[in-house]
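User: I'm curious whether this sequence folds into something compact or stays loose and floppy. Could you predict its structure so I can see for myself?
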Amino acid sequence: MSITKSDVEHVAKLARLELSDAEKEQFTEQLNAILKYAEQLDALNTDDVAPTSHAMPMVNVMREDVAGPSLPIDKVMLNAPDEEDGQFKVPAVLE
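Assistant: Here's the prediction. I'll summarize afterward.
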């Protein structure tokens, strides 16, 4: 697979970029070099490599979610700028 100058022009149009002819040529060469480099991966034998989503094993490092005692509502409401019926009262964000 290779990138043509018309491919670069199409992407530039979608991105609303104005490119000079020299820039179009430069980007065509650079993108083709990237694709050529990526094609080297086809030569690798990956038969014994398990598919992964991360390069390193990921583990959950969070603590267990354990319910504990809460603060009394009257102490919590001391931090509220405005309160109504034991709930924080905030300005409406929807009309």
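Summary: The mean pLDDT is 90. The chain is about 35% helix and 5% strand.
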